[in-house]
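I'll show one example:
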Amino acid sequence: MFGRLRAWSRRHPVLVDSLTVSPVILFCLSSARYSDVSQDVGMHISTAFAFALSVLLLAPLVVRRNRPREVFATIALISLGQWMLGMGILSANLAVLVAMYAVASRCTARWAIAAGLVAELGLLMAQSRWGGFQPSAFASMSVFVIAIWIAGIYVNTRHRYVESLVERAERAELERDQQARIAAAAERARIARELHDVIAHNVSVMVVQADGASYAISSDPEQARRAVQAISSTGRQALAEMRRLVGVLRQDGGFREKYAPQPGVAQLADLVEQVGDSGLPIDFTVSGTPRDLPEGEQLVIYRIVQEALTNTLKHGGPGARAVVDIAYGSAGVTLRISDDGRGAAATPGQGGHGLLGMYERAAMYGGTVDAGPRPGGGFQVVARIPTGAAA
C-alpha cells in the first residue's frame, strides 16, 4: 500500500505539494482579513489587498519541489517589495520559511546556507522596521527559523543517504547479473569444449573403423569383425561421456547420480591404444619425473592430446604416423604431438573449434599452444602447461 502511494506521489508532484502546503495556505488566507495593519507611512492595507498579497506569496509553493530555488527567490523578492513599501507583516510571510525548508531539503549545502542567511536577514529587517530591534525576540524567532532550516538539512541528508543505498543496491544487482551471465557464458564454453572433444574424437574413430570394416568385410572378415567391435566400444564410451556431461547439466541441490571421473594423465595410455587400434601408429614417450597434477590440469593435457590425435585421424591421410611426447620439467609439462601426414588445411590460429578449444584450455592455466604444419610435412601441436609455482 505504501509503495503504491509513494509511486502515485512521484507521478503527481504538484498535486502532492499542494495538498501538503494546503493547511498553511488555508490558515494564511483565512487570517488575511485580520491583517489590515497600519503602515509607517500612514496608509491602510485593505482586506482585499492583504488577501491578494497573501495569494501572491503562497501560490509559488505548489511547485517548490521541482523549482525550490526559484520559488524561494520569488517569495523573498515579494517580501522585500512588501518591506520597501512599508506594508505590515502578513501570516502569508510564513511562505518564506516553507520555501527555505524546500531549498534546504532539496538543494546543495551552498544553496541551503544562502537560503538560511536570506531568511535570517529578512527576519532582522522586519523586526527592525516594524517592531523595533529586540535581541531576545530576535533570538527566539531565530531559533524557530534555524530549527526549520536544520530540519530541511536533515531531510536532505536522509534523502541522499537513501539514494546512495538504492544506487548501491542497483549496482550490486547489476554486478550480480553480470557475474551470472559471465559464469553462464564460461560454463557454456566449457561444456562446448567438452562436447566437441568427446564427439569429435569418438566419432572420428568410429568413422575410421567403419571405413576399414567396409574395405575388409569381403577379404578379411575377422578384421572387419574387430573393426565393428571397436566401433561398438567407442560408441559406448562416447555415450558414457555424453551421459556424464548431461548429468552435470541436470544436477541440482537434490539427488545426484555418481558419474565416471574426468579423464587424466593416467588414461593417456588407453587413449593412445584406442587411437592405435583405429589404424594410426603412435609412438608414445614420457620423459622427466611425473608428478601429481590437479585434476583440471590433467584434463587439459588429456584433451589436448585427444584433439591433436583426432585431427591426425581426420587430416593425416593413409599411412600417417604420430608421435606423442610428454616431458615433465621444473616449470611445467610440455606436450608435443606431431605426425608425418598431409597436414591440416588450416593455418596456425585458424581452423575449427578444436584448435580454439586447445588455446582456451591451455590459457585457463596460464599455458600456451602452438599448432601448425611442420616444414617437412605433417602437423605439430606443442603445448606448455605451467605447474606449481610457475602456474
Summary: DSSP finds eleven helices and five strands in the chain. The two ends are 57 Å apart (CA to CA).
